[in-house]
Amino acid sequence: MKKCLLLGNGGRESVIAENIAKGYELYSVLPYENPSIVEAVENSGGKYIVGSPFDKKLVEEFIKKEGIEVCVISSDNLLQDGLIDLAKSLGLKVFGPTSKGSKIEWSKTYALDIVNELEPKMIIKNYNVETVEELKNVIENYEDENFVIKPEGLTGGKGVKVGGIHFVSKQEGYEYAKSCLDESGKVIIQDKVEGREFTVMCLTDGKNIVPMPITFDYPYRYEEDKGPGTGGMGCMSYPNGLLPFLTKEDVEECANLMKKTIHYLNKDSLEFTGVLYGGFFKTKDGIKFIEFNARFGDPEAINVLNALETPFIDVLENIANGTLSTDNCKFSSKYTFTVYIVSKDYAVRSNKEATVFKLNTKAIKEQGLKIYFANAKEVGDDTYTSVSNSRLFAVSTVGEDFEEIRKKVYDAIEENVDKVLDYRKDIGQIYVH
Predict the structure, then answer these.
(1) Cα 182 from Cα 45, distance rounded (Å)
(2) Which residue from 130, 270, 353, 426 puts its CA 20 to 30 A from 394's CA?
(3) Residues in the chain where the model's pLDDT stays below 70
(4) Contact status, residue 338 vs residue 346, Cβ threshold 8 Å
């Protein structure tokens, strides 16, 4: 049995761990004992150590000592930091881009330049600002706060701010944009457009792509898409792989751009395998590009991997061999539904004190639902604690009837999740912005 190293510790990694453990021995370097990943490691007969996955010396020693053959990384910061480069240098088969390949996520201006070259009609009017004077001039040209501010680098899904939602005046927008400019030397100001946001994720071996079921994410903290941006409060997908407002032609247009992008990134050497994530808007003027990520989304990974019929280890093998295709990577025709549970302070205010909470995992699992832990660890029987200010765990399922599975998840949360925690109660509704 092959030995596979997974780095990363969120809910996304929890579902990846579950799938790797079905056919490989799973190994991991964890900053804390994520219950879902620990369980998957132990079920597979693998091994984990507690330490920093950014510690390249530690990771290299672990790989060599355990004789690990495959490496999977789907975490933005780890990819940017070159952990896939390290694995490749040690001769491992990899799932995930090099640091150079993942630049498409950690540099928004780089991604925009590529899309502008490949499909300029999909670009929303934007300004790449590098000085305070430029920033003043750009914002002065807007009549009101009808613009979007995007930091240049990684922000964990929390950095983009939309006028009228996250700031309510040009001056407030200017102050936030200036803080981004001060931090990285660049900030993007973009026209605000109306439409429906959606995600297209494609698996790729560096040459071929396989689009996964289209997911609808809930990136705002509160019901009706209000409040600050988050890493995602929930997610759903439909049996036909589409969403009610999308056509196959819409998805093909996005997938075509993504395939061209993969070829662009790999034109000189194989820098990108794994998952290319594309964020898009469907508007009255057609499909518009929002952003690229160089890995699975979270919680989107939970939905698509629970819809994956082909064993994930077979997908890994086909990616490593350059033989990925729609014939050897199949998804089920079912609804998927995921809700994230968070502390009440999540994305609203910083809380230095850990949140201790009760959770009846056994009762939830007995109902056929799955739990994927993210930023939490077990401290006693049915007792857990947060390890950061981020999301704590997700509850997810798949099924034939959407309203049935939606009710099942929400009933289980209501009955078995500690009232000190919080979650959005409107996952499943589709909002227009």
Answers:
(1) 48
(2) 353
(3) 155-158, 431-433
(4) no
